[in-house]
Amino acid sequence: MTTEQRTADFELERQRLIRLGYRMLGSISEAEDVAQDAWLRFAAAEATIDAPAAYLTRIVTRLCLDRLKSARMRRETYVGPWLPEPLISDVEPDEAAADDITVTLMLAMERLSPLERAAFLLHDIFDVALGEVALTLGREPAAVRQLASRARKHVQDARPRYALDAAEGDRIARAFFAAARDGDTGALSALLAEDVAIHMDGGGKVLAFHNVVQGVDRVRRLYASLHRKAPKPPRLLRMVTIDGLPGYVSIDGREVLQTTALEIRNDRIVAIYIVSNPEKLMRVQSFTSASAPGP
Question: CA distances (Å), 40 to each of 4, 36, 44, in order?
């Protein structure tokens, strides 16, 4: 196999490999690093590789499993809630968001063991045959079937039950931004579920909530307080889809860039995921100078 052929084979798989790495690690930059490492090993392999896609998938999965060990240790000392790096459909290639995994499901997968996570993603999301998953993980097919089954049960409540209409999601997200910006508790009451929760990831880099804010009353009071105390109103930069959820990119009243993703069920917002950690927003920095009409 020539270098040109191997390069072409890798390029055909690059986006899928990055997507797999991101779903395993929650970081686009780490996923790209893993894909690059896989390319180096693929390019240096002396033996003929009859199934490049399967070979590259095995390498990426195993590299991710190695990285997950240190990632879990880092998250034990993480300041405040941890959220995955936001995958924004307006920024990343559409293929990268071509599955039904949302922020909610990614957080649920955090509770899985690394092997359960890998088995679930490979078999249920990326449609890898059970025998190939077993080879990748170095386990018997029966053991892999059990891993995937356990994982499926753990995350079943977090999987989307129905596809939210894009226009409706955009409408609710715009209405929420306006209500939050204005501290409008009445409008917030009409949008929020009783058990709504705010998860905010500042990573200790910017001012953020260090605990999950739970319950509609607390959330309403919080946004009313932010409205009173903010030096200036938040600014909407663009409506986007974030890991399959409707949301937006904005600048808050203290000039901090952030993304907000909304989980919506039965026309009510049940979870609000805010990322303001600048280390996770490098890919949306260009939005800072952009403008978009507000609601």
Answer: 14, 6, 6
State how far the Cα of 170 lies from the Cα of 257, in Å rounded to an integer.
Answer: 20
Contact between residue 87 and residue 242 where contact means Cβ atoms under 8 Å apart: yes
Name 263's bridge partners. 271
Give residue-wise pLDDT tens across range 48-69. 888 999 999 999 999 999 999 8
- Tokens standing for 108? 């649920």
* 251 burial type by CB count under 10 A (0-12 exposed, 13-18 middle, 19+ buried): middle
> What is the DSSP code (8-state) at residue 265?
E
The predicted-structure confidence for 180-236, as pLDDT tens digits, reads as follows 999 999 999 999 999 999 999 999 899 888 899 999 999 999 999 999 998 999 999
E-assigned strand segments in the chain: 192-201, 213-214, 235-242, 245-251, 257-265, 268-275
| Buried residues in 209-240 as b, exposed as e (16+ CB within 10 A) | eeeebeebeebbebbbebbeeeeeebbbbbbb
